[in-house]
Design a protein that fits this description.
homodimer; 387 residues; 12 strands; DNA-binding
Chain lengths: 387, 387
DNA sequence: CTACTTGGCTAAATCGATTAACTAGTGATA
DNA sequence: TATCACTAGTTAATCGATTTAGCCAAGTAG
């Protein structure tokens, strides 16, 4: 019951659904399952109490005007609404009041662990509000498809947008928050982690383990984190005396393998690009992958090639997805608090929607954390590559 | 462009959005970004062409009545709509026509790979229709929360429901499809895999490898597949001469560990319950887990206990989630075509919504497939447990 | 005694579409 | 010539709420 209450009006009780939520509450026994055909309308509730629909609406919504209505009448109204199991028509209500209590969430692909965890965070926050959300995956196709979806969401009258790991290049027509976005746009808040800190944590760890030749897997061009993370690693590497060998870097889906457009790509890509590295005959003792998924794919490639992880090659991921700790070897990775970032994005967006004209922060930064597990170990003196 | 077209009217072009979609098409250059304040309404389009809103609506929707309107007039209307970048108000339209083109999807937890893949399949199918969907995770809390969400979805005027791995015990007020559901209810279609076949494939594989003492991890009580899968394994085991030792079976979240209510539970639970097995001192050479996630958690427990997988213990999962192939050892598992099941569920549901009164199948079955990978191997003669 | 407030409520416009029923004109048919 | 069918639309009701403006009665200040 407690959960039910908070799910309906938590935090925004001023917003008008409060009273109606209260009506809908109560033991199911009292509220008869709507049986014969039609749904119950406001008009019917009004008829039952012998008042006008206007009055009933004002009371159920606890409108300021309703203050002058005696408590006894209000009670009668609430009682009638409950008895009939009145549930306001969402469409009619939204049409008139221009509030839909829904958000649009755009992700690259809903089945990727990264997106799924962020969405879980978003959901966790929305649970305490009366908001719902629509989802769409743009599948990293092209920019116009993303805009297409933005339009579709707007058509559905969402009040705000959360983009996950998706680059926005044009100011959207609605309040928006971008998780892992890096483009400053008016009206857009970006929730990002401190990539410089992430890079220095990672590289210091590898340096302490004695690694000198470190390979890098750069992210997909479509991913909004790709460039900033890349810049951060390059700068940190330079600052710490690592040489950034071109032959030791590979970009995910540069041009090839773009044909394989299955959503399962992440692991496969990591695998394929680790193979590229191996085929080049590049010498390295550690790999810094773009994310956990590609790290896991790369590890498979190394193992298949007869290399041991971490004895022959250390691997560092990024994200700390749920399975990272359970992989074997367990993955050393930079933890992004994905769930928290999702919740934060949702909170910021709702604040903006509620708050009106306050100019939003362009960037909100959260801290990364290096989680050292089993995929990193001291560098071998001489990185001998078998096969 | 092609994607856009199909995303709008694919397959259901009779449904009324077709013409409007066509209007919304066309180069962005032609359609000026809606600048000053208000949105464009039907009335404004009508004013521009000097006709009544009714006519414009009829034409844009390609209503049968519009057949009598000359092509030239229709062209003028379309042109005006495009020029103004007219986009019909979703709420008004839905309120009147009682069609919302949205579905509700209920999952246990959106971040679980199982749910995420099914949703990806649902999405893939909906992409070719004009439907969108709302999601909610009931987090396996209690039955009433699930009903609460069903009501919430109905309030939002979804036209149908897809429940994923969630048990429905009461006939819902809307058309519904349950993925992995096992309760036959009027108006509900269940999409399931053939668990008997899954069980016999699994056990035959283990038998061929010489395993005799096989442990089983039963699923969570909240999961809709739990009982049927369990029954199938028991029956298959009996039929094949396996003895089903009570001490070799553990149920996920029986009573303990229910306190740990984090969504990350899956792996942890598998881990915890493999520990239970080990602590019992039970002798076994193979473990059949409820799903891949618990299998992976269990493998971690075995490795931590100094057992080797598959040399000392073979492990079989269920589902074949994306990461299963990339785990180390790669996971032998029963593949459920999750994406296809999601797409199938979406298709069946839309057919029912479109088809009206055709009584739906109670069950639609898809075939499992045993995917043999690295986590199973011949049984050791004497399963010696270290530690 | 008038004017003004306050309490308790209602009428009616409105949100932006859809759609059944109807009109008015024209040509063909019986 | 009356009837019918067709063309090319229009009118107006409706979906189910929200919300502004205002009505009437009772009380109160001046």
């Amino acid at each position: 019951m407690a959960a039910r209450k908070s799910a309906r009006n938590g935090g925004r009780s001023k917003e008008g659904t409060a009273a109606v939520a209260a009506v809908a509450d109560g033991p199911a026994a009292v509220a008869p399952r709507r049986e014969g055909g039609g749904t119950v309308t406001l008009r019917q509730v009004a008829a039952k109490v012998g008042l006008s629909p206007a009055t009933v609406s004002l009371v159920l919504n606890q409108a300021p005007t309703a203050a002058s209505i005696p408590a006894e009448t209000q009670a009668r109204i609430f009682a009638a609404a409950r008895e009939l199991d009145y549930r306001p028509n969402y469409l009619a209500r939204s049409l008139r009041s221009r509030r839909t209590f829904s958000l649009g969430v755009l992700v690259p692909e809903i089945s990727e662990p990264y997106a799924a965890e962020v969405m879980s965070g978003i959901e966790g926050h929305l649970l305490e509000t009366s908001y719902h959300y629509l989802v769409a995956s743009h599948r990293r196709s092209n920019v116009s498809l993303l805009h297409e979806y933005l339009d579709l969401m707007r058509d559905r009258a969402v009040e705000g947008l959360i983009l996950v790991a998706s680059e926005l290049h044009e100011e959207p027509s609605l309040p928006a928050v971008v998780v892992s976005g890096h483009v400053p746009l008016a009206g857009v808040t970006n929730v990002i982690i401190d990539h410089d800190r992430a890079a220095s944590l990672t590289l210091r760890h590898l340096q302490e383990l004695g690694h000198e030749r470190v390979a890098f897997l750069k992210g997909q061009p479509g991913s909004s984190d790709t460039e900033d993370r890349w810049r951060a690693y390059r700068e940190a590497a330079a600052g710490m005396g690592f040489t950034f060998h071109p032959e030791l870097t590979v970009q995910l889906s540069g041009e090839p393998a773009l044909a394989t457009f299955s959503p399962a790509d992440g692991y496969e890509e990591g695998h394929a690009f680790a193979r590229v590295l191996l085929d080049r005959g590049a010498r390295f003792t550690a790999l810094v992958a773009f994310d956990d998924v590609s790290a896991i794919g790369a590890i498979r490639a190394f193992l298949d090639a007869g290399l041991r992880v971490p004895e022959d090659v250390s691997v560092v991921g990024f994200d700390d997805i749920q399975s990272a700790a359970y992989h074997n070897p367990s993955l050393t990775t930079v933890r992004q608090p994905l769930r928290e970032m999702g919740a934060l994005a949702a909170r910021l967006l709702l604040e903006r929607i509620a708050g009106g004209e306050t100019k939003p922060e362009a960037f909100v930064t959260v801290e990364p954390q290096l989680v050292v597990r089993g995929s990193t170990a001291p560098a071998r003196r001489e990185a001998r590559k078998r096969r």
